[in-house]
Hints:
Blueprint: E1 2-11, H1 16-32, E2 36-52, E3 55-67, H2 71-80, E4 85-92
Antiparallel strand pairs: 1-3, 1-4, 2-3
Amino acid sequence: MNKYEIALVVSSKIDDEQREAVLEKVKKLIAKYGATFTDVDDQGKKRLAYEIQDMKEGYYYFVHFEGPVEAPAKIENKLRITESVIRYLIVRQDA
C-alpha cells in the first residue's frame, strides 16, 4: 500500500454543509477503490493565485490516504467531474 495526498480546492461559493458533503464524497471514493482514509488537513479559506471561474478564493483541504497503485487514477476521474471541486492534485508521499 502506498501513501497518497490529495490537495483539494473547493469552491468558495458553496455553504459549509455542501463543503462537508464534498469531503464525505471524497472519503467514500477512497473507500470505494480499496484505499484507507487517514486524515484531512483543513487549511481554510485562502486567496487563489489566479482567478478561476470568477472566484478569487477557495477552501483548501489536504486529504491523506493509503491504497493500491490504481486508486489515485480512479479517484481523479471522479474528482474531475465534481462541480464544486475547482482544482485537485494527487501525489504519492515518500516513505
